[in-house]
Amino acid sequence: MTKPIPIDSTLQACSRPELRALVSRVSDRLNVMWAQKLVAHCATLEPEEGSLRIGIVRSFTSELLDPWLKLAAALQGLGIDIYHAPYGLSLQEAEPDSGLVSHAPDVTVLLLDCESVHPAFNAPLVEHDADTQRQVADVVLDRLCSILERFRSQPIGHMVLALLPARIGPALGTFDAQSERSQARWWSDLKGRIAACLRTSMRAASLLDLDELLLDIGRSHFFDRRLWYSARFPFAPRAAFEVATRIVEVGVLTKRPKAKVIALDADNTLWGGIIGEDGIEGIALGPDYPGNCYLDFQRRLLDLEQRGFVLALCSKNNAADVEHVLSSHPHQLIKDHHFVAKRVNWLDKATNLRELADELNLGLSSFVFVDDSAHEIAAVRRLLPEVEAVQMPHEPLDVPTALEHVARLQTLSLTAEDQSKTGMYIAERERRSHKARFGQDAGALGDYLSSLDMRMQVVYDSAAHVGRLAQLTQKTNQFNLTTRRRDEQQLADLIAAQDWLVAHFSLTDIFGDSGIVGLALVRRLDDAAAELDSFLMSCRVIGRTAEQAFLETLLRKLKQEGVRTFFADYLPTSKNGLVADFLPKQGFSRRADGRHERRLDQGPAVSLAAKSPIVVTESNGAPFSRKTD
Amino acid sequence: MSIFAQLQDAIATTLNVAPEKISETTSADNLTAWDSLGHVNLMMAIEQTFDIYLEVEDFSKLTSVEAILAYLDSRDIR
Fold first, then answer.
1. Which residue of A has its CA nearest to B14?
2. Which candidate, A139, A92, A87, A132, places its Cα nearest to that of A113?
3. What pLDDT was estimated at residue A201?
4. Which among A293, A341, A346, A538 counts the fewest CB atoms within 10 Å?
5. Which residues of A touch B13 (CB under 8 A)?
6. Radius of gyration in angstroms for the set of CA atoms belonging to chain A, rounded to a whole number
7. CATH number for the domain including B47?
């Protein structure tokens, strides 16, 4: 519970972010009429920025979600076009000529009640012993996965599975939690197995756990029994709005630039009060109210770091005051080492955010800026519209959940690289200061590079990391010769194909392991020729000659495999100017038709440049030959 | 605002039609936007507008402006 505000006050919002914040505070009192009013109000604020196509396959009434989907989309500045598949779980919708496929959705939601997935849900589960229960789960899982696979085989955008929670408590009532036949435990295990199936064997597919929403809202507020029993629509208004919000979030995450950095103000954001005035003893941070609200907010920020976002500090303060809190306040959870970059000074926030972007080598559109000052937020929104600016609530009770409604701080996938991002950025910072010690002399760069003791592992045709490889093709804009985006399934297909070579590399040095940071896709054209379809590298490792070592390793491999002519292309975009002359520099010659070519049969495959400071090891894949069929 | 004007506003906003199109003779039979799904939404809107709780049994009876006004009157909403 937080302090209620009148529902009419939402109509005073002057911007979409402000409206989103207000709506989240009245979401328990919304109804369809208000949804329509708010959509209309949204339209007066700012023009839409794009549109979302949603497909819904459902086993119950879903049309009543429309006003809520429209509201959720409008709050994100998106128009929305919704297709509802015919009533009932219709597998014909998974055919290439279906209404769903021709709608070409960005997001397809499978909104199912459990009884429609399998009849087992109609009988009491607790009549079975544990073994039989397990068999029932196997059967349900099989059935569901085969349904999901059929849909996934069609181009229907990101797929979201949402299973309707139980409308009433478990068969054994209060005793369920204690019973070895517990229905709640069975369901939670089954959900875990469904999630694993989505995670491991399906690309672009997510489980939307409605039970989690039900926890937020409470069962009696989640369902409207009148609507369920009279119109087979389960959701009370609040649940309908939250479900719609989660669906639109998926659309936002697939369509908008990915958020990477949370740039935080310090005073009244990380703690209550102003360090320069209240002093380290006086700021609110600790076990008592209101300091415990800020403590919970800091915990949440560390959670967000686990989702793959990195934290930066952007505060108008004396640097020493802030350092003192970070190092010495007994309750400060976020320490200096959690921040990948800091700007604590008296410059304006826009200047500092620009500098942070430069330092981290990221675009401003990857920034979410969090500040308590309405003035700072407004200035950043005006000067840097690419930055998503979020205003901290003034009520301490609202502080812990201040970022819960920022759609771009959700994530649809998580790789090992995501979870250790902070460490990687900090290693990069250490690398830079290490480099500075070598000075600017002629041999300094070479000395610096050899001092890093770099080791590269090149791996061919391994399906173990397709998630990360797909992420690289989707996120790499700067060091990318052709900017061809591929999803996990496409990469898995290329890895399996005999006429494609999928090479990736990871790099370690004295400062740490960068993880998988480079990818090359090579297609065999005939016995003697191949072409470089994609060649890209994360900006994280730019400046360490890794691209050269990787390419040379690849050329040597191709030469061994009998390739004599190797073609490559540079396809310019607004962001990849960095690699405009990469191919000529690597000994490729430009042909009349604009392609680049390098002969591998004349002279050594490897260029005769200075010896690489990187020690390369390779793990062999399957032989790479021309397509046989 | 009169009860009719409040109802007119609720129907127009919920079903996305111009308020002028809603008169005392409007019903689900003569307003295209007042279909079965619109009707469910309208019931929710009426609840909120007049701060009442509608029974499922009422849903199927309240399919015209006239019926809704009579119902509100019976609940002493005048």
1. A33
2. A87
3. 81
4. A346
5. 33, 36-37
6. 27
7. 1.10.1200.10
